[in-house]
Fold ABC transporter ATP-binding protein.
Amino acid sequence: MEYVIEMLGIRKQFGDFVANDNITLQLKKGEIHALLGENGAGKSTLMNVLFGLYQPEAGTIRVRGKEVKITDPNVANKLGIGMVHQHFMLVENFTVTENIILGSEPTKMGTINIKDAAKKVQALSEKYNLNVDPYAKIEDISVGMQQRVEILKTLYRGADILIFDEPTASLTPQEITELMQIMKRLIEEGKSIILITHKLKEIMEVSDRVTVIRKGQGIGTVVTAESSPTQLAELMVGRQVVFKTEKIAPNPKEIVLQIDSLTVADNRGVDKVKNLNLTVRAGEIVGIAGIDGNGQSELIEAITGLRKVKNGKITLNGKEITNLKPRKITESGVGHIPQDRHKHGLVLDFPLGHNIALQTYYKQPISKNGVINYKKVNEIARNIIEQYDVRSGEGVMSITRSLSGGNQQKAIIGREVERNPDLLIAALPTRGLDVGAIEFIHRRLIEQRDNGKAVLLISFELDEVMNVSDEIAVIYDGYIIDTVKPQETTENELGLLMAGQSLQENTKEGGQHE
């Protein structure tokens, strides 16, 4: 059997924490091999060992049958291994071509030859049907396009073994479909792919085999076609997983959040939320469905006080909160699970305990006469860590940056829910999380609703919006264009609404959304 990559008995530890414990992974030539595991199971660590970012304490790596020592990413590149990272490694104000050649610039007579490089980028882009403009600036292109630039970066360096780390975490459903096609095309061209993911739908669609790791240990490798999502989920978390969250019918009561004729502009002064009306009641979950970039971010930022409102009114429990300072808004009863946990949710270099206290550090019982009681901080944090199953090496003292994305997210959710807000805003609450964590978070959101709280859910995942919401408001181009009940619509109809078509128009010829 010809393997292009063999990782045999790999062990990697950080201090006393064993991230990879005797793991074996074998990649065949021309296959898409999925690496599946919960958040924090050790998937990215294993791939960072293969890419030369970490050195293993034990085990051997063979590339095309030869034993190798991959001491840094340049060695990996020379061996034909390329990695598309989950958090893109791109310079925002550089062009596509400048980013692709960074570190391996082609020179002519001592000057960088951008023209030749752009031609090569264009040729690669056409060969793999990536449709990337070599001269576009990174800051002006979509997340999906930025990811294609990352793929081109590896191809430009001649990689024939590609590692994709959680490649669909930030993509829209349409971009995910396109990425799957790109991956299949890469395989046709003789490449081999390792796909790190916990999205079972994608694994079933594109992978040939799956290696499952749980809590740092290899559980086994299965042929995808001989397995099922239920089986894979069970291997991944070690128990049965419920995909559809059970819930009783909602019992909506008084209005908690009322938004009237809201207009909000982006940083460039362009209106992104336009004359928007929305109502969320106590005891219900209203989901906002839409393709990324249709005003969702500006809407959340306006409600939470992070962005000024241009026009209109936001009312919470009958009191106006428009343009109040963020702390005033949180104190008036708003909890916020932000869409970007790194930018707006956590201070990554703080210990976990301090992050959990971020919303309450200046109040009793944590603070008295301006002095913080750290014993109390850690006691409260420990309770949340336990309740929300936040896994970390050193508990409250763990530096937050060292936690996996899923565990960082659980810490934020614990912090916000435990404050018991009247309105909980959950923006992309399960982005990049595994099925076990998703199930846990959905239960918490429904619990909040059942406790008589109002929940506003913003998500790009259609099945999440359908599964969790009691009512779905579809946002398109800054307007709420329709409101539907999940049980009275289909994913297909919702997809059409998200693309800006009203359902009545779909029955007409060539209807246009006004």
